[in-house]
Amino acid sequence: KAGVTQTPRYLIKTRGQQVTLSCSPISGHRSVSWYQQTPGQGLQFLFEYFSETQRNKGNFPGRFSGRQFSNSRSEMNVSTLELGDSALYLCASRSRPGTPSSYNSPLHFGNGTRLTVT
Amino acid sequence: GQQLNQSPQSMFIQEGEDVSMNCTSSSIFNTWLWYKQEPGEGPVLLIALYKAGELTSNGRLTAQFGITRKDSFLNISASIPSDVGIYFCAGQLFGGTSYGKLTFGQGTILTVHP
Q: Taking CA atoms, what residue in A is nearest to B38?
């Protein structure tokens, strides 16, 4: 079974630009989450989507947004890029959303998109 | 918000030695997970723990969900060079504003000398 696929693997953007990252979950997985990883802050939760609806959002500014399509694929967008947005952006999927009834549905991560803002 | 303290931050060991790392939290979790990340890759799930007191093994790896639900440890026995990487603990608390969110520890960098 193919894992979580993220594209592109590397991206270089300039301050003020916007960027869109793409994620294809493991086949059959309907829940997609996004995380930001930086040396200083570690792994930080961005948001989780299930059935095309955002179920939870982390403490990030409104410049960070996402969406999920009917085939469970997801995109995240960052507008008006800042130098501090340089990070590894990780997508993860699970078969069911993070509710108490599906507690034994752990997250599986992709290899990430390395974004560099100059 | 919830904070996870993972220790040690780094370990330098000889091949064949056993390794132990742990995570503590200021509040409880329903699930504890342990991931390993290697350069250029995303975190890979090693072990998932769902009940307080649960002890689970995966090959040479053993992890436990603390009885207070505020801590977890991971042991690696008879380390080998391919164990090199960064190990992360993560906790999940279901419901409310914690829906679907994993809180991660800062990571333990493991170096194994042949």
A: A111
